Each structure stands twice: as structure tokens, then as C-alpha cells.
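Study the following:
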Amino acid sequence: MTSGQDPATREFYADKWSVLANVDKSIGVTPQLEAFLAALPAGGSVLELGCGAGRDSKAIIAAGFDLDATDGCPELVPLTRAHIDHPVRLMRFDELDVDRLYDGVWASACLLHVFRADLPAILARIHRALKPGGRFFASYKAGTAEGRDDYGRYFNYPDIPWLRAAYAQAADWAAFDVETGPGLQHGGSEIDWHRVTVIRRGEEA
């Protein structure tokens, strides 16, 4: 997870590293990660956005990929770096500024904190960062309007038509696949999640 740029959301995560780590132990690796990695070139480059306490980071490294782990919360970064024994960079989503560098971008439960108005621009940055044919996964808590949870965190709470429109505004993707189903959220209750995988077109020169 990451805090995005909303002050109240960032404040929530600033002192929650141990809480995140304990939740990660109980939940385990994101279930969609194995299939995502299997579709990438062996040993390929993966950018992880919002790595949080490093739950998925460790699995990506163990699978032999070249991981660029990042998070936008400065309080979390040094703790996660020590926890996974791997470099972790401090980077906000809007600071991503590279071209055709990664085989995959992994953004589990983090872009859901991006303001609705800002999401297409962030998605465009991710599209540019992918190599042609590169894959991008992100997950969002399902809803119909942006809002805040009981802890004061901002969520964009999209429905599928809104997500399709935001992704289409960002770039012309080769594929847009979405899976919706229940999952846990902070505090242990269930909520529906949209899990989106897209591919950058591969024929670009």
C-alpha cells in the first residue's frame, strides 16, 4: 500500500509499518501474483508501486525477477528496505518518469488511493514505463463514488465502466481484463475488489 498524495491517507500509513507487516503475514501473497509473473519473461524487470511492508516484494525477488520496489510513504521505505533486504525507493506515483523500462508493473492495493481526477495521468505514466508487450496489474476496492473509509483514508471506489474509461483515457491498451470478487480490507471485513490486468501494445517501434 501507499499513501498517494492525500495528507490524511499518508498520515494513516506513516506509523503503520508493523501493522501492515502483521496483516501481510495473515493474508499472504496477493493470489494474482503467481499468474502475473508467469506471463513475464524469466528474470524480467518488474516495477512495484506501493510496496508497503514488502509482502509481494519478497515473492517477486524469490521468483528471480529484477525488482524495482517503490513506495510513496517516507516512513515505510527504510523499514521495508531492511525487512526484505533489497533496495526500496521513495517515489510517488506522479514521479514515475521513464520510457519502456519494465516488463511488468505491479500495483496491488495502492492506486485505489489516487484521486479520480488524477488516475488517468498516472496510468499514462505507467503505460509509458512499460516495454511494448509489458503487463500491468492493479487492484481497486469496488464502489460507485470516491470517498473515505472509517479510518479517514481516501479511496476512488470505481465501478468497471469508470475504470475502463480511465484506462482508455490514459492509453490505447492491447488488452483490458478485469476480475471482480470479494477480498479482505483493513480491519478484517470483506469488500469486493476489481483486479485489472492490461497489456501495452507490442508492435510499437
